[in-house]
Each structure stands twice: as C-alpha cells, then as structure tokens.
Design a protein that fits this description.
Elements lengths: L10 E12 L2 E13 L5 E2 L2 H17 L3 E5 L4
C-alpha cells in the first residue's frame, strides 16, 4: 500500500496515540495499532480499530473530568 496523501511513502505497522475531545472531555488513547507513512506521518486505522477507539472515547466522556488517558483495548 502506498500513502494516499504523498503517493510515495509506505505506511508501516506500528502504534500511535489517538486524541479526541467529546462533551468537554479531552481523551487520549495510547498504543492504538495503525499504519503510518514513513515520509509524511499520515496515519491509517482499520475500521474495527477505529470503531473500538471511538467506543473508548465515548466511555471516557461518560466518566467525566477534563482529561482522560486510556490504553487501547481490543474488544
């Protein structure tokens, strides 16, 4: 697979942090599996991983507070 953004890079398997804000809560999910372009750093997530991360963000927002730090956990 070539990077869809730069057309030259090759996304490689690794992990990254996903950051989101929902209902006033900032959520950081660490160690999310992704493919990242070796040239521009563009991040690609599989659909199942995206769905799980968004579920974790939703759970964190329900917990309240201003900042919530989570480890990625597969369903």
């Amino acid at each position: 697979m070539k990077c869809l953004s730069c057309k030259n890079g090759t996304p490689t398997e690794c992990t990254t942090a996903f950051t989101a804000e929902r209902d006033g809560v900032f959520v950081i999910v660490k160690h999310v599996p992704a493919r990242i372009c070796n040239i521009r750093g563009e991040e690609y997530f599989d659909a199942a991983i995206t769905a799980r991360v968004l579920e974790q963000v939703k759970e964190a927002a329900k917990a309240g507070g201003q900042l919530n730090l989570r480890e990625y956990a597969a369903a």
